[in-house]
Design goal:
By secondary structure, the protein is mainly β. The protein is built from two helices and 20 strands. The relative contact order is 0.15. It binds 2-acetamido-2-deoxy-beta-D-glucopyranose (3 copies) and zinc ion. Residues 198, 200-201, 203, 247, 249-250, 252 line the site of zinc ion. Belongs to the MsrB Met sulfoxide reductase family.
Length: 286
């Protein structure tokens, strides 16, 4: 299971929405016959129910090519609604299809990466209502056959809009598994009593009670604050096998865990400071 499958399985949707994509029907080669670009032909299908206040919603398809890429818009369409069908405060969409065609350079995608297609529904205030992300592993770049993938779009969780407010570094770290430079986080030397929450969804992750000076340059803890709030995956990037640590609620990447920590757990949660927010106990006592 890929860690990148960030938003697919958390909430259930009352709105069924399929993204069907046919990929790489055309590959483009340079003069020395190296593959340089691919053209994706895509199609998004959907129908469903939205609250009546979101009558002016539109569908947007976006692409990210690499870890550092902010989403780029590749297709956009207003959603049409059926007449005379509003019951309660809901309104039913017509079944819709959005087609797109996109040429993208393969050179910009790193070998450890996947590119990502997202389908989003936004209302007329540009507030995100639904999202589905499709992560296409890079190995499929070799596949020249047309292929169809279907995903369901999930109801957007409340914290999703916080992702856009992150600093670029926090974005790279939490959304793309990046790492801040050692000794750059103020939280590394923070000795105050309090809790550390997720910078994206504010879930409680670590406590000052379990923090220690590891000498590594990253905030380090020998255990998590609340069991179940922190989850792990095996990470085989850069030719190493490490245990990746992420927020169980929003899947934000936090850091890695190693088994060279202090007593009593012998664990070392090596965490990026930009992935955390610190809440001091002192504020509460005032
Ligand atoms: C329709 O609206 C009601 C509230 O008025 C809500 O409980 C229900 O889930 C909605 N149905 C759908 C299919 O979205
Ligand atoms: C709308 O979606 C439902 C599934 O929720 C599906 O059964 C139906 O065929 C769709 N209608 C159209 C016109 O696509
Ligand atoms: C985040 O969590 C902390 C600690 O539980 C809480 O004090 C704070 O109000 C929360 N912040 C937001 C914006 O919810
Ligand atoms: Zn989180």
């Amino acid at each position: 299971m890929k860690y990148y499958l960030v938003f697919l399985y958390i909430f259930t949707a009352s709105f069924l929405f399929n993204l069907t994509i046919s990929k790489q029907q055309e590959n483009l080669f340079d003069q020395s016959k190296r593959l340089t670009h691919a053209i994706i032909h895509g199609e998004v299908h959907g129908n469903g129910t939205l609250p009546i206040e979101d009558k002016n919603s539109y569908l947007l398809v976006e692409l990210r090519l690499s870890r550092d890429d902010r989403p780029r818009s590749i297709a956009r369409n207003k959603i049409k609604f059926n007449n005379n069908n509003n019951n309660n405060n809901n309104i039913t969409t017509q079944s819709f299809t959005l087609q797109f065609k996109l040429k993208y350079p393969l050179s910009k995608i790193s070998p450890h990466n996947s590119y990502i297609l997202s389908a989003k529904i936004l209302n007329n205030q540009n507030k995100l209502i639904y999202i589905g992300d499709l992560h296409v592993p890079i190995t499929e770049r070799k596949n020249e056959q047309a292929k169809y993938l279907v995903i369901n779009v999930i109801k957007t969780p409340s914290w999703y809009n916080n992702i856009d407010k992150l600093s670029l570094l926090a974005y790279k770290v939490t959304q793309w598994g990046g790492t801040e430079e050692a000794f750059t986080s103020e939280l590394y030397t923070n000795k105050k009593s309090g809790i550390y929450t997720c910078v994206v969804c504010n879930s409680t992750l670590f406590s000052s009670k379990h923090k220690y000076n590891s000498g590594t340059g990253w905030p380090s803890f020998y255990q998590v604050a609340i069991e179940g709030n922190v989850a792990t995956n095996i990470d085989r990037k850069y030719g190493m096998t490490r245990t990746e640590v992420h927020c169980a609620k929003c899947k934000a990447h936090l850091g890695h865990v190693f088994d060279d920590g202090p007593q009593p757990t012998y664990m070392r949660y090596c965490i990026n400071g930009v992935a955390l927010q610190f809440y001091s106990d002192e504020n509460e006592m005032k």
